[in-house]
Amino acid sequence: MAALIEVHNLRFRYPDGTEALRGVDFRLEGRETVALFGPNGSGKTTFVLHLVGLLRGEGEIRICGLPVEKEHLKTIRSRVGIVFQDADVQLFMPSVLEDAAFGPLNLGLPEAEAKRRARRALEQVGMAGAAEKAPYHLSAGEKRRVALAGVLAMEPEILILDEPTTFLDPPGREALLSLLQGLPQAKFLVTHDVEFALALAGRAVFFEEGRIVGEGPVAEVARKHQWTVNQRRFFSGAQTG
Predict the structure, then answer these.
(1) I need a surface site. Which of 1, 18, 115, 180 has the fewest CB within 10 A?
(2) 221 by DSSP, 3-state: which?
(3) What tens digit of pLDDT does each residue of 81-131 get?
(4) 59 with 11: CB under 8 angstroms?
């Protein structure tokens, strides 16, 4: 069976000459969750933007078997849902329900079907009771859930989560983790939060200077590259757990 994401020898250079990707190979299998670690400027965001055709470099990318080329972008973008680090980027409609229905409407679905999907997705993330609220009245954790509902309403096969725990307090973080653990989609988690990745992902890759320089179990990759926001807490937990 083909992987959901297949990337071979991906290279990209920005117009100013910065070489952001230097021969990246990557696979994401069905129902797999992979964490992507790496310092700022290592190429993580550039890589993610290539997966949905927002940037075009050299090399080969296939999403759900389709090459990332102009004629397939609409289909690919319906199969890959991105939840951005700042949920406010995705929430701009007058009500929560309208925000959640925006993606399906853009896919060309009738309004009734788009709203049906939106209501189902809001129920899935525990936000059905907020359907008529204005998004700006929500907490950071609630906004993250509504942004996720808008993605789930498009019924994607792959979820890309960009720093999903940013701005969340511990209860919000735990609630999001529980929610994501229950979702069937394959997940690609871009994060600095090692403990969150340990709880959610089966493996990790480490980006550095435009290359994947490490891959394997989350704890192993994090330890090898000393990658954690709270080093003492992570390593003491790893040693005693």
Answers:
(1) 1
(2) helix
(3) 988 887 777 888 889 999 999 989 988 899 999 999 999 999 988 899 989
(4) yes
Tell me the residue type at 67. P
103 vs 99: CA distance, rounded Å: 8
Pairing between β-strand 33-37 and β-strand 58-63 as defined by DSSP bridges: unpaired
- Quote the CA–CA distance of 180 and 110 in Å, as a whole number: 28
Q: What confidence tier does 44 reach under pLDDT thresholds 50, 70, 90? A: very high
Distance, in Å, from the CA atom of 135 to the CA atom of 142, rounded to the nearest integer, reads 9
- Averaged over 159-174, what is the pLDDT? 87
Distinct helix (H) and strand (E) counts, the chain = 9, 10
Residue 232 reports pLDDT greater than 70: no
Cα end-to-end distance, the chain, whole Å: 36
The closest of 167, 121, 159, 165 to 140, measured between CA atoms, is 167
Is 77 strand, coil or helix?
helix
Burial of 170 (0-12, 13-18, 19+ CB in 10 A): exposed
Model-level pTM? 0.85
pLDDT for residue 165: 87
